[in-house]
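Minutes, structural biology subgroup

Action item carried over from last meeting: produce the C-alpha cell record for Putative anti-sigma factor antagonist (Ilumatobacter coccineus). EB confirmed the sequence was re-checked against the source entry. Recorded below for completeness.
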Amino acid sequence: MREPSGQLDLEIVVRGEIGHPRAELRVAGEFDRLQVGRFDKAATALSEAIEQLTVDLSRTTIIDSAALGSLVRLRHALDRRGCTLRVVVATPFQETVLRVSGLFDFLGVEVGDRP
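Output recorded by EB:
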C-alpha cells in the first residue's frame, strides 16, 4: 500500500567513511517529484571533505524531470566545492532518460551492470 506522502517509494542509502574522500548515494525505487526533497537532504548532508560522489540510480524505477533537476543542482553544488560526480545507471530506460534529456555527459553517467 502506498502512503500519501510516498515515503515508501524511494530508498536512499548513503555510503562512505568519515575522513574518506569518496561517498556514494544509492537510490532505489521511484525518484520523482515526491521524493526529490529527501534526495536533496541526503546529498546536502554529505561532508564538505568528499572529493568524489557516486549517485547509483541502477535500482530506480522512475526518473522524472524533478529528479533530473535535482541531479543538475547537485552537479553545480559539487562543482563549486571541487568535487566530481559519477552517476551510475544500469537499465536501457535509465540510460535513455539521461541521454534524451541531454544530461548523460554533463552528469558523468556510466552504464553499469544490471541490479
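Discussion: Residues 1-7 have pLDDT under 50 and may be disordered.
Next step: EB to file the record with the rest of the batch.
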